[in-house]
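[agent] plan:
  1. take the single chain provided in the ticket
  2. run structure prediction with default settings
  3. attach structure tokens to the ticket
  4. add a short note for the reviewer (M.T.)
[agent] executing step 1
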Amino acid sequence: MVTDRSFKVILMGDGAVGKTTLINRYTTGVFTARTSMTIGVDFRVKKITIQDKVISLQLWDFMGEERFRKVLPVYVAGADGGIFMFDLTRYDTFKNIKNWTEVIKECVDEQENPLPMVLVGGKSDLAFIKAVESFYGKKLAEDNPFFISYVECSSKTGENVDLIFETIAKAMLKREGLIKTN
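[agent] step 2 finished; step 3 output follows
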């Protein structure tokens, strides 16, 4: 299988929001309840086909602890798209999305052809202790031109996991002029 294009996708958000679990679920199809804190950057690759284009998604999982954010510019360099993730059961992680977007805006030249970014609310399977209602996630995505979409997901059940990566893949292909439709 010949790859038509490789894309670097960065995942960002506070620690313990589920970034590593999301990537594990997407790349292996398996939910892992216990993961250790990401130290530095974790890197995974998955090939997918979108509208007859075979693409390689290089998924970069950045550590979420604030003390490591000074290395973020190196991590973001060369990115084609991104996923900003928060934990639906922890309001503070939603509130901190603004901090993450500010850091990225300093690292990426968004003048003419902005990077597609998806806002993700994780742990939707824990709706009974939800601290951020869907309305607020949708509103943040709509009010911020930085985001192309808002998706709630559960790495545990697999709900919307594929949708997140298909959405970002289509947006990156469209940005490169390789496909014309959503």
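[agent] step 4 note for reviewer: The helical segments are 19-28, 72-76, 91-95, 97-107, 134-143, 161-175.
[agent] ticket updated
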